[in-house]
Design a protein that fits this description.
8 helices; single chain; elongated; 11 strands; Heat Shock Protein 90; alpha+beta
């Protein structure tokens, strides 16, 4: 017999069945003699024992692989649940802040600007619908990030995009001057995006600005070559004290492989990064040292509006 170009003589085959598995062993002896049969017979129990060892080893590997799969599924579920809770917390933060102001409102402990904000909120009939929408999106998110990614992209106008950004921005902040549009005519171009995904992205970015920035903040929307550029800018609290940590976060975020960022307690940033990378959308963060600002820049490929005459 020849195996892998090696010739074997005086071959004997042993077959051992362990439960539903068959194990075959080949023994090649140098010489043919009358004692070979007896020798093989004596070796049979040893190879039967070896077959059982192989079976146990393979069974352990199968069990381990199965357990690893279950663990990965559970970890993925926990991560998705964490994303959902994070989204709900971010979305409801303006609502909880409003509730706190309402208490002060009735105690007459707020200034005129806060009073105007509260009265506007109380007159808003869409509050309950907003909360229902938040819960619905959280339910989608808890089923997995892929459920968001798999949503079909839609072609929308730049005006629709700007309106969405304004809606998210004004939900947290009460200054219309913060949203700066550097585009002459919003009707000239369209974009193709996953609107549900960007709802999560805008929510996390703006809430991060709300939590970690000062009152100096803005979002700029412009056209740069073939892209619509959205740049969120906020002044950094305690810039000198936080500078080194921020430099490290920026470096990790902009790497191709950003797994390490998950262990840096930057859950919101890592979630944004994960969504945008899944859809191959150009995104980076950077520190403007001169102005002491944190910048999050997103670039979306622009499409010419077919209804516009050139």
């Amino acid at each position: 017999m020849t195996i892998d170009n090696i010739k074997y003589q005086n071959c004997y085959w042993l077959n051992h069945k362990v439960q539903n598995k068959d194990y075959y062993f080949m023994i090649s002896l140098k010489k043919e003699n009358v004692f070979n049969e007896s020798l093989i017979s004596n070796l049979r129990p040893i190879f039967e024992y070896i077959a059982r060892i192989f079976f146990m080893s393979n069974s352990l590997i199968e069990v381990n692989n199965h357990n690893q799969k279950i663990i990965k599924q559970k970890v993925a579920y926990v991560f998705d649940a964490q994303n959902a809770l994070h989204f709900v917390k971010n979305k409801l933060s303006p609502v909880t802040a409003t509730i706190g102001l309402i208490d002060r409102y009735f105690k007459q402990e707020i200034n005129s600007e806060q009073k105007k904000y509260i009265e506007g909120r109380l007159k808003n009939n869409n509050n309950s619908n907003e909360i229902k929408g938040i819960i619905k999106k959280a339910e989608i998110l808890i089923k997995g990030v892929d459920n968001i990614i798999d949503e079909n992209d839609e072609i929308i106008s730049l005006k629709t995009l700007v309106d969405d950004i304004r809606k998210h921005w004004y939900f947290h902040f009460n200054n219309i001057d913060d949203v700066i549009i550097n585009i002459d005519d919003l009707s000239d171009f369209d974009i193709e995006i996953n609107q549900m995904m960007f709802d999560f992205v805008f929510t996390d970015i703006i809430e991060n600005i709300n939590k970690y920035g000062t009152h100096v903040r803005k979002v700029e929307i412009s056209i740069q070559e073939d892209f619509v550029t959205i740049k969120f800018v906020n002044e950094i609290k305690d810039f000198e004290r936080n500078k080194l940590d921020l430099d490290e976060i920026v470096s990790l975020y902009n790497l191709k492989d950003n797994d390490e960022i998950y262990s840096r307690k930057t859950h919101g940033l890592s979630f944004i990064r994960r969504l945008l990378r899944k859809k191959n959308i150009n995104n980076r963060i950077f520190i403007d040292q001169e102005n002491k600002t944190f910048n999050n820049e997103i670039k979306i490929k622009k499409l010419r509006n077919e209804n516009i005459s050139v």
